[in-house]
Specification:
The complex is a heterodimer of chains A (about 550) and B (about 425). Chain A has 18 helices and 21 strands. Chain A is α/β, with parallel strands linked by helices and about 550 residues long. In chain A, helix 1 links the parallel strand 1 and strand 2. Chain B folds into two domains: about 290 residues, Gyrase A, domain 2 (2-Layer Sandwich); about 100 residues, Elongation Factor Tu (Ef-tu), domain 3. In chain B, strands 10-11-12-9-3-13 form a six-stranded mixed beta sheet. The chains are: A alpha/beta (about 550), B alpha+beta (about 425). At the A-B interface, helix 2, strand 5, helix 4, strand 9 and helix 14 of A face helix 3, helix 7, strand 13 and helix 10 of B.
Chain lengths: ~550, ~425
């Protein structure tokens, strides 16, 4: 069997569909939209009663919209917005142009949209770091610029012998050959080193370093001092919104608002979305995918099946691993997921008060709540938080990436009330000597206590608290071990190794069976590119088969 | 100098502005909400560029919740008398006779050669009383044209403040203060009171969104502003400044004097001048053949329409985002995002070879709601149909090249709520 099998279909199977996408997460929806746009009769099967996967907005309390899991538009690629005409379907990313970083001593760092003011804000803390801030962003932007083309194209198959593969390898080598030496050196510093080392090379002030280190650990079982955290930092910088590299946005209506836009776009292109349809397995005949079997026993046929699930489910659950190459099965078994993130979402009776920035009588002066609240004052604080996770326990003083989304989008909560999304780390999937059901409330208390220490009186504002543990993430979304990236962002699990060596180009060993989830390049995060690139792969194979 | 020292003593307010540059009736309160202290001068008033380090927050307040803008520096003229209607029918391009009391019109006025001088909004308060707003002083021009008509033109610019309340939640916020606002259709207005102060609320604005403008006597301005801020505090209300306004108005396809055109009376050449049709306001000319209403410029406009029509058509312009991105990436640059309108005109060609210039862009900016650079442009009339592919000249690395763009219908952003009767 070769990867080059076309997508022909046994003639005796009558099908209503040309393609079935398993999983209505954002990558599944993006993939379906591209396939439908190309004219394929496309069906999306989603197990839940709403699309979005980990990017959903739900109302556990009436009137309060929680981004249960994923909470920001992070790395979404602009070409997807344009190619799928998402603006027409309601795409509205509200920029979150500020970052608020309490420094742990009652002070704060508040960075916003105005570069000059940001430099002065840094200088207020440390004159040395003011111009370092410019150099830091210049160097990081240059790295992003060098890496960007790798994000917008499928990884070349360096192991393949096909002329197409070789052309892609040649493209990659040419691109890398054109990268400036010092930039390439920075790329390696980031890919192999720790965020702490990288930041030490620029900054002196502990809070300035702490602020920049926060993106180096998101969703990953690393501390900012661990090698590999540099890669995570770089990955999170790959996003852009409104042309600002590394900036994240908040979609109107939360990330569920965004996936509803995707669903409308896919439907407008002709795709059909079926909710409450849990797929049991992919049907094959003569080593070709011919459709799927649902858990209720129904069978649906199509010559193309695309799994938007994570690599474990794609290769070990939906198909029989005994029919796959052992090397692939081994790789997927070995792939690390190790979720370490939890969510604690709050419905609040009012805005928290940061004592150094007291509220104004008119309700204004809330710029520090207009973006992300970064609770992890210093690198050491975050590294200490990581320590517990190494030994199977959650942080006593966790890192929190919070956003009071209703400040930016008042439609998320009743007038005067607020919703606060808190991404809390570290919370390892497996607890030593206990389990998450037993620890759920205490973990919520732990996160809340940290917030209370920065925002005195916080607890009095809490109307409702939702604790989403890594086990909940796995149970509801299907993400193995609650890993938010569908496979950790580790060098051996990136680019042409994602999800497994030799299988990074969206095909699988089963002809007609494809993969498009965040566990494929360049996932995770809300990026959409795996869905897009996998769509291109399917369409190219279909064209070749014709 | 003793005199200066005395003037700057703590007992008197510091001379933050000169005798010429003054502040608006809302300034005292808005200043307290302003962390930036950045102003431009608009008609001799301080006008905030932005209130926070992130004008984008202000922009999104208008597109997603509600924002307030201090539009007090507009010139305001009360035009009253038995012949007021006849007077305005002869001065303004649109037929004011079709505007009943309680309604208003966005309109233009031209010179006798049919070139546009200025634009403004006129509200009709009674059969004989109107208030006209304009971006610049117009008292001289208006009184000069009054002739022997029984009409009085009074400059009431300083007597009142104007607060624009704009955005999807503007109706909720204002209707909570003045219930009659809830049913107000577009370009209607009503007398009401807010915080015990008599005001006029009109469903007008310069953002292309659902929105209102509140005209309030200067001495009641702070009470009204306080009431609006209080009513808006649970709705994410923010004051917004001119930086946010410029993006909003370009998305809304609303032209700006001295940017989209030059007042004909002050222009040096006809190339700087535009006719109503050329400004994209041909829809105002429905009554131009009406023999019962001569108005300044009418005959010239008739002549223009009868002899080949306008030289230019005003259109929306949408820059191809993929081409924009590739152009800059291939040059080794991060693709720029112009969050402030370009301060110069850009040229439009029919092909990358740039043999034939076919138009020019008067305003170009990145639109967050549309996720691409958009603009207001003037093209040869035969290229005006939406979707016409053009090439926009841009500078990259000290040289010029072109990027793909196409024409589009104005307004570029037009949410149904702008004109909807109800939420």
């Amino acid at each position: 069997m070769t990867e080059r099998d076309g997508a022909e279909h046994p003639a005796d199977l009558v099908t209503a569909y040309d393609a079935i996408v398993v999983g209505g997460g954002h990558n599944g929806l993006v993939n379906a939209a591209y396939l439908a746009k190309a004219g394929l009769r496309t069906l999306v099967l989603e197990q839940r009663d709403l699309v979005g996967g980990a990017a959903v907005t739900e109302q556990p309390v009436p009137g309060f919209s929680f981004t249960t899991f994923s909470y920001a538009l992070s790395l979404l690629r602009p070409e997807i917005v344009h190619e799928l005409d998402l603006v027409r379907h309601g795409f509205l990313p509200l920029m979150m142009p500020s970052s608020f970083h309490p420094t742990g001593d009652g002070g704060y760092l508040l960075l916003g949209d105005d570069h000059d003011q940001n430099v002065q804000e840094i200088r207020r803390h440390c004159p040395h770091d003011a111009d370092a801030y410019d150099r830091y962003h210049h160097d990081l932007d240059r790295v992003v610029q060098a890496v960007q083309p790798l994000f917008d194209n499928p990884p070349p198959d360096v192991f393949g012998t096909d002329p197409d593969d070789q052309a892609d390898v040649a493209w990659l080598l040419k691109h890398l050959g054109g990268v400036d030496r010092s930039v390439m050196h920075d790329v390696v510093r980031l890919l192999t080193g720790s965020a702490a080392d990288w930041l030490e090379d620029y900054f002196r002030h502990e809070a300035v370093k702490g602020f920049h280190a926060s993106s180096s650990i998101i969703g990953s079982k690393v501390g900012p001092m661990s090698p590999g955290s540099g890669l995570v930092l770089l990955f999170h910088k790959m996003g852009q919104h409104d042309g600002h590299l590394g900036s994240w946005a908040f979609h109107k209506g939360g990330n569920g608002g965004f996936t509803q836009v995707l669903a409308r776009a896919a439907t407008a292109f002709g795709a059909e979305i079926r909710l409450g349809a849990r797929v049991a397995s992919v049907l094959t005949r003569e080593d070709r995918a011919v459709g799927v079997a649902l858990e209720d026993g129904a069978e649906l046929h199509a010559p193309v099946v695309v799994s938007a699930l994570d690599p474990r489910r794609t290769f070990l659950d939906l198909v029989d691993p005994r029919r796959l190459p052992s090397e692939l099965v081994d790789s997927v078994e070995r792939m690390r997921f190790r979720g370490v993130s939890a969510k604690v979402n709050f419905a609040l009776d009012g805005l928290p008060v940061f004592p150094a920035l007291p509220p104004r009588p008119d309700g204004g002066g809330v710029d520090h709540y207009g973006g992300f609240l970064n609770i992890g004052p210093t690198i050491e604080y975050v590294e200490h938080a990581f320590d517990a996770a190494k030994y199977g326990w959650y942080s006593e003083r966790p890192f929190i990436d919070a956003a009071i989304q209703s400040v930016v989008d008042p439609d998320m909560a009743p007038p005067g009330k607020h919703v606060m999304s808190c991404f809390v780390q570290y919370a390892p999937y497996e607890l030593r000597g206990s389990d998450w059901e037993a620890e759920r409330d205490r973990f919520g208390d732990t996160a809340q206590a940290v917030l209370e220490s920065h925002f005195p009186g916080f607890g009095d504002l809490v109307l409702h608290r939702q604790v989403v543990t890594p086990v909940d993430i796995e149970r509801v979304t299907g993400l193995t071990e609650g890993n938010i990236f569908a496979g950790e962002l580790l060098a051996p699990q990136m680019y042409f190794f994602r999800p497994a060596p030799g299988w990074s180009r969206y095909r699988t060993p089963i002809a007609g069976y494809y993969q498009c989830g965040s566990g494929t390049h360049p996932g995770g995060c809300v990026i959409g590119s795996p869905g897009r690139l996998a769509g291109q792969r399917v369409l190219r194979d279909l064209a070749a088969a014709r | 100098m003793p005199a200066l020292a005395a003037r700057w003593s703590p007992r008197s307010a510091p001379p933050t502005v000169s005798r010429v540059i003054r502040t608006t009736p809302f300034h005292e309160r808005l200043k307290a909400l302003d962390s930036q202290g950045l102003y431009t001068h608009w008609q001799g008033r301080l006008s905030a560029l932005r209130y926070s380090p992130a004008p984008k927050h202000e922009y999104f307040a208008v597109r997603s919740s509600v924002g307030v803008f201090d539009t007090s520096p507009l010139s305001k003229y009360r035009i009253e008398g038995p012949d007021a209607e006849r007077f305005l029918a002869g001065v303004l391009v649109r037929d004011i006779r079709a505007c009943p009391p309680g309604r208003g019109q966005y309109t233009l006025w031209c010179d006798d050669r049919g070139f546009v001088m200025e634009d403004g909004v006129v509200l009709r308060h009674s059969p004989t009383e109107f208030v006209l707003t304009a971006a610049r002083p117009n008292h001289g021009r208006l009184t000069d044209l009054a002739g022997r008509l029984r009409v009085r033109v009074e400059d009431v610019s300083d007597a009142s403040g104007m607060l624009a309340v704009q955005g999807p939640r503007s109706r909720t916020v204002l209707a909570g203060l003045a219930p009659e606002v809830a049913a107000l259709p577009v370009f209607a207005h009503t007398p009401t009171s807010v915080a015990g102060v008599p005001v006029t609320v009109s469903r007008t604005g310069y953002t292309g969104d659902l929105g209102y403008e509140v005209t309030v006597p200067a001495d009641g301005a702070l009470d009204v502003l306080d009431a609006v801020l209080e009513a808006g505090r649970d709705h994410g209300l923010r004051p917004f400044g001119e930086e946010a306004l410029m993006v909003l108005r370009i998305e809304a396809g609303l032209p700006l004097l001295d940017v989209e055109w030059t007042n004909s009376r002050l222009a040096f050449t006809d190339e700087q001048r535009v006719t109503p049709s050329e400004l994209g306001m041909g829809w105002m000319l429905r009554g131009v053949e009406d023999p019962t209403r001569p108005f300044v410029g009418r005959d010239a406009i008739r002549h223009e329409l009868a002899t080949g029509g306008p030289r230019w058509a005003t259109v929306g312009l949408v820059v191809d985002p993929a081409n924009w991105e590739r152009l800059h990436r291939e040059a080794g640059l991060l693709p720029p995002v112009h969050e402030h309108p370009l301060p110069y005109e850009s040229l439009l060609y029919d092909a990358p070879t740039r043999d034939h210039q076919v138009g020019y862009v008067t305003s170009l900016v990145y639109s967050p709601v549309l996720q691409r650079h958009v603009g207001l442009a003037r093209v040869r009339p035969e290229l005006a149909s939406p979707g016409t592919r053009l090439q926009l000249e841009v500078a990259v690395h000290h040289g010029t090249t072109t990027v793909r763009a196409c024409t589009a219908t104005l307004p570029l952003f037009d949410p149904p709520r702008r004109t909807a009767r109800h939420d």
